[in-house]
Design goal:
There is one protein chain. This protein is an alpha/beta fold. It is built from 5 helices and 8 strands; from the N terminus they run H-E-E-E-E-H-E-H-E-H-E-E-H. It has helices at residues 2-28, 74-89, 107-117, 130-134, 163-173; strands at residues 39-40, 45-47, 53-55, 63-69, 95-101, 123-125, 143-147, 152-158. Strands 1-8-7-4-5-6 form a 6-stranded mixed sheet, covered by helices on one side.
Length: 190
């Protein structure tokens, strides 16, 4: 009797492990940009550097890379040239990088850094941290969210991102295939 109970328990454990591994493999093999559950982007309105309210809903129909960053974050500053390159690469496509500066950043610091680094994408201020909360308690920077044209978050990346991977993921969400970028980035080696 004891042997049969042990075999049943071992069979159940093996089946559970197989289901978990199968689920992990299924998630791993999903097409790029579809690894997370598609959840709605929160309805957030934030002030631009010019003080104008900007609603993320106003970007519906465009693929977005929403990047939470801070002027005091070396990793954030290091990835800004890649964000600028993505914005320029997909110029003319329904794609936009949106930078959201974390609470504590001064508008003057953000504006000075934007001018120095040629940040040609929308920059929004989150002075009370409401957007960071709405996107799921963003505490670490940089944190980026890839949002499809229907307003669903399809991927979240904490930390710097490999430029080529983002380019490929963004390309899969756009209606027309995009040409590969020619710029090599240190983050591409990952």
């Amino acid at each position: 009797m004891m042997g049969a109970g042990r075999r049943v328990r071992e069979t159940l454990i093996a089946a559970l492990v197989a289901v978990i591994l199968g689920g992990a493999l299924w998630l791993w093999l999903q097409p790029a940009g579809q690894r997370l559950l598609q959840i709605a982007m929160p309805p957030v309105t934030l002030p631009s550097l010019q003080g104008q309210p900007v609603s993320l809903e106003g970007f519906r129909g465009r693929v977005l890379l929403v990047n939470f960053w801070s002027t005091s974050c070396p990793g954030c500053i290091a990835e800004i040239p890649d964000l600028v390159a993505l914005q320029q690469h997909f110029a003319g496509a329904p794609f936009t990088v949106i930078g959201i500066s974390m609470a504590g950043d001064e508008e003057t610091q953000v504006a000075a850094l934007a001018a120095r680094l040629g940040m040609d994408y929308p920059l929004l201020m989150d002075p009370q941290g409401k957007a960071a909360q709405a996107f799921g308690s963003v505490n670490l920077t940089p944190t980026s969210f890839l949002v499809d044209a229907h307003g669903h978050i399809v991927e979240r990346q904490v930390g710097a991102f490999p430029l080529k991977q983002w380019e490929q993921r963004i390309g899969t969400l756009l209606p027309v295939p995009q040409r590969p970028m020619e710029k090599d980035s240190p983050g591409d080696a990952a």
